[in-house]
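User: I've been going back and forth on whether these two constructs are worth ordering. Before I decide, could you fold them both?

Assistant: Sure. I'll take them in the order you sent them. The first construct and its structure tokens:
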Amino acid sequence: MPDNRKYRTAAVGGTFDYIHTGHKALLERAFDTSQKVMIGLTSDDFAASEGKRIEHDYKFRRAQLVNFIEKEFPRRDYLITRLESRFGPGIFTKDVEAIVVSEETLPRVKSANLKRTKEGLEELKVEVVPMAKDRNGRIISSTRIRAGEIDVEGREK
């Protein structure tokens, strides 16, 4: 049966310290639009260099992400790579056609596309996912989950 998704391969990235509603929306868009999803998972060192305080190490976050994907998107083609910088090397290849980002990270795509065009590659198509918000309109984030304000669905504790 042919796969009629828009892209052969799309990239998405994140720290995925807690897989929350916003992460689910990003991954859902990536898997809905692409035959294969390349997921950049932030390394512990890169997260620290970006000022992120994470609770779970890379190994735990990767296992959690694999479990989530296998449950929510069974038998789908994906690859998880370690992110040591804002953009993994995979998005600077002709294989990746699109990138799935939140509104928050959309401005970073411009620099990736500039680098791609300098290397003779087409610009990435961009799939923008709105920020997930709780019932009070506040953004759902791992920071708020870690602080005990909300759960992964954005419900107040």
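The second construct, handled the same way:
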Amino acid sequence: MACFLAPATAAVAVSAAKSKIPARYHPERLLLMLWGGVLVLLVDHIASGEVVFYFPFFTRGWNEIWPEIVSVGVPMALVILAVWGIMVWVDGRKPQQQAEFGGR
């Protein structure tokens, strides 16, 4: 129901620190992945009626929301960070590989 809150929190933190992250790490890619995931999850939760447009916004109580954030949202955010980390690693290896193979 509220699993999108964990990646949203990570996206806000990265947005705030974006100017301090070196460009070679491509923080814009991480932000696209995080905000894209948040958007898809939010649309899904709105379509299923778990999130509504009036207060309190969630159709269930916090005693059900917290376990979902911890068990689903946090692992989701960590997977996104891991995929981004792999992308950065692969991107960093490209110049090395090109030099090893004569620029081909």
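Notes on the second construct follow. The two ends are 49 Å apart (CA to CA). The chain has one domain: 5-100.
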